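Appendix B, record 7
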Amino acid sequence: MSAEAGRVSEDALLGGKVILRQPVRGHRFGHDAVLLAAATPAQAGQHAVELGSGVGAAGLALARRVEGLTVTLVELDAALAALANENILRNALTEHARAANWRGAHRPVCSCSGGTRRRGCCDRKAF
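Structure tokens (predicted):
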């Protein structure tokens, strides 16, 4: 991994109501996360799950908008899931949000010949 690959920026969402750390390169949150959070008809006492959450932009914006909502952020990329956890802490949402690395926690990954990892490459059923 290059030094550039590990660099992150700290950016504001919703006029600074949510502060997020995200990679400098690669996919970065945008207006789609804000629109998704705004369009989700969630209420206090409910539990929302965001699959493919990245650094948690949509889910944390939703948690900030709906007080008393519980949010689980699920991400395949371990580095992004770690940033999502940092963002939960940074925004004081630990009582209402958590992040999980799906691959590490729930979904086995098979190592195939050549060191590549892909679905269905193992002798045993992994999915």
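Remarks on this record: The helical segments are 31-39, 57-65, 78-90, 102-105. The chain has four helices and five strands.
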